Amino acid sequence: MVLGSCGSPQTTLDSFLGQETDKTLPLDELVEGRVVVTQDVSPLFDARATFSTGDWDSPGFTVIAACGDGKYLEDSENLEILVVNSSALTDENIQEAQDGTYQEWLANVDCYKDE
After folding, report:
1. SS3 of 50, please?
2. What's the rounded Cα separation, in Å, for the pair 105 and 46?
3. For residue 2, what are the β-bridge partners?
4. How far is 28 from 19, CA to CA, in rounded Å?
5. What are the residue ranges spanned by the domains of the chain?
6. With the C-alpha atoms ordered 61, 63, 64, 68, is the resulting torsion angle positive or negative?
7. pLDDT per residue as tens digits for the range 44-83
8. What's the rounded Cα separation, in Å, for the pair 97 and 17?
9. Which of 2, 31, 95, 105 has the fewest CB atoms inside 10 Å of its own CB, making it the most exposed?
10. What are residue 83's DSSP bridge partners?
């Protein structure tokens, strides 16, 4: 999280990477005024896809990739988030998520790019 020009906190979506969903933002704050597409890619880690949006505020799922159409969450109207059943991830997978390794799995249709 960084402070915006008016001193208000601004959240980078990178701060979600490698975090369990319930440790990021409450679902109602995440979806407020936005379209959020969440995909459970657990089968790519040999686990069943069982995530539903209602699971966001519960432990058990980890964000491995995320992007929005704005530089910060607060500037974004559209988000894409990939999650995986946390029990399917190794420490190495979590580190790879934090390093941005899985960002290439996003559809990237509306992902903000620093230029």
Report:
1. coil
2. 16
3. 10
4. 18
5. 12-105
6. positive
7. 999 999 999 899 999 999 999 999 999 999 999 999 999 9
8. 6
9. 2
10. 40, 63
